[in-house]
Amino acid sequence: MKGALSVRALKRHYTLRQRSGLFSSAKTLKAVDGLTFTVAPGEMFGIVGESGSGKSTTARLLLGHIPPTSGDVWFGGEPVGAVPNAHWRAMRKRMQMIYQDPLGALDPRIAVAGQIEEPLIIHNPEMTPADRKRRVAEVMAAVGLITHHGSRYPHELSGGQRQRVIIARALSMEPELLVCDEPVSALDVSVQAQVLNVFEDIRARTGFTGVFISHDLKVVRQVADRVAVMYLGCIVEMGIPEDILQSPAHPYTKALVSAVPQPGRPARSRIILTGDPPNPVNVPSGCPFHTRCPEARPACRSLKPELIAEGGRSVACHLVNNPSLVGGEAA
Ligand code: SF4
To answer: Atom 3, ligand 1: which residue's CA is nearest?
Structure first.
């Protein structure tokens, strides 16, 4: 059975030192600020949010690439990043990541078949060269690359082909957990659809547990079984993508959903948020979204909402969970 991913009260804060004349002061950047969720074995969990919401830091925490400030991550019943070295290396093989920028993740001097084979040489020393070649051919076929692509260099391939190489390289390790950070955002829309189909096919065949991170709710909807919406390092809403798209509950999710083109919905119904997301060094008091929220009440400035689950949906908003607490007119 594939492993479940469990994330509990996960935080990653950075201390920033600032010097002014003789004095220095420290500020805290809260990149990730208290995430709790589980991903069932074989489930694909989407994370969506604007840039700066903490999505990529979350990806690195999930795989143990950086340590948390507090909280923990477990995969398959074992703590991620907190185990002795030999054990951790064995565990790392089961957890792979796909990055946003395939060109940056590939070595321009090595033909792509060699790059797909490389993790097998490092992590599976017991495999013979013939076994490795066979595995490389299998995963290239699985992502729709043909044999002669293997002798090409990254710059000789299209963006979609390069991203397939990255997927093939991750799949060559037969991962049980695959974390994908904006894997199709650099691709044309038509190529995005092809690559997403590759994901779906392979997930259906291998049943890996996945986390799919994107700024684009449309993309996440195509591949995820559940989705979490992040804002300033926190989850503000979590549920089934179709439900969230049909009836978003959190005011931030409403704005995100209003930007997704849907048949029959007039363009003027789009909700335009005013202002940029606040600096994560200066997270607003109370509800972190209150400075941009069209529905904010005066009390939202001081009371931080909890993420509360009800009927398969979790929302962090007073108006949804406890309207009598904030009452009154929009601020
Ligand atoms: Fe808006 Fe208040 Fe809800 Fe925050 S708690 S999302 S400010 S209504």
So the answer is: 317
User: Are 165 and 141 contacting, i.e. CB atoms less than 8 angstroms apart?
Assistant: no
What percentage of residues in the chain have a pLDDT greater than 70?
95
Backbone torsion region of residue 312, taken as left when φ is above 0, otherwise alpha when ψ lies between -120 and 50, otherwise beta:
left
316 Cα to the center of ligand 1, angstroms: 8
Beta strand segments in 40-76, E: 44-48, 70-75
CA distance 255 to 273: 7
pTM: 0.89
**Encoded tokens for 181:** 């950070």
Task: Please work out whether the CB of residue 255 comes within 6 Å of at least one atom of ligand 1.
Answer: no
Atom number, ligand 1, closest to the C-alpha of residue 303: 5
Distance from residue 95's CA to the centre of ligand 1 (Å): 36
Average of per-residue pLDDT across 256-272: 78
Spatial CA neighbour of 45 closest among 201, 226, 172, 195: 226
229 lines ligand 1 (CB under 6 A): no
When the candidates are 3.30.300.20, 2.60.60.30, 3.40.50.300, 3.40.50.1220, the CATH number that belongs to 5-94+175-321 is 3.40.50.300
Q: Give the pLDDT confidence of 146-195 residue by residue, as tens digits.
A: 989 999 999 999 888 898 899 899 888 889 999 999 888 877 787 788 78
Tell me the best of 237, 300, 325 to mutate to test the pocket of ligand 1, counting ligand atoms within 8 Å of each CB and taking the most: 300
pLDDT tens track for 100-130? 777 788 999 999 999 999 999 988 889 999 9
